[in-house]
Write a structure and sequence with these properties.
The protein is an all-alpha fold and 180 residues long. Helix 1 packs antiparallel against helix 2, helix 2 runs antiparallel to helix 3 and helix 8 runs antiparallel to helix 9.
């Protein structure tokens, strides 16, 4: 599959879908350095900004390599994303009816990544907690485990142990943990 995506990308580098499929294929193969190299090479030749989903993928690759630049890229993605969570009505419907190319789960994942980057690279527990709260608005209960586990950790680290325990119970309920 990656070979086909690479072939299509080589022939149609200006096609947003060809680019993203190839780069995300590299990412799924854990070729994080290659993702960054390919995107950097593309930007050098084409002198244009990345689409939000491409910027998110680039930031995720940088996060996977523990590169603090990921924080700035994720901040840029969040700046560019519509704030569906601030609208009245159904967040899922608003996202799914947009032409953004993101699913609600994709947007939730961006906010989780931003929270992780804020915590890891900036030590910013407040930003991390706020981003996790926003991520939960985009995620279905069965998708919330990463956000809930990070929420428990950030609350605990910020000295809010009682609140962390409340969220830990939500985590246990969501993930289907059973009593041992």
């Amino acid at each position: 599959e990656l070979t086909l995506c690479h072939w299509v990308y080589q022939d149609f580098p200006d096609n947003q879908y060809a680019r993203y499929n190839y780069w995300s294929g590299l990412y799924s193969q854990r070729e994080f350095t290659k993702v960054i190299e390919e995107i950097d090479a593309y930007q050098t030749v084409h002198k244009q900004g990345l689409q939000p989903n491409e910027q998110s993928l680039y930031a995720s690759a940088k996060m996977s390599l523990n590169d603090s630049e990921a924080y700035d890229y994720l901040q840029g993605v969040i700046f560019a994303l519509p704030k569906f969570h601030e609208l009245e009505g159904d967040v899922y419907e608003a996202v799914n009816n947009s032409s953004l190319g993101f699913t609600p789960k994709d947007i939730g994942a961006v906010y989780i990544g931003y929270a992780q980057a804020a915590l890891i690279f900036k030590g910013d527990l407040i930003t991390a907690n706020n981003a996790l709260d926003i991520s939960l608005k985009y995620l279905q209960p069965y998708e919330q485990y990463p956000a809930l586990s990070a929420k428990v950790a950030t609350l605990y680290l910020s000295g809010q142990e009682q609140e962390a325990m409340v969220w830990y119970q939500k985590l246990r309920a969501t993930s289907g943990f059973s009593e041992v």
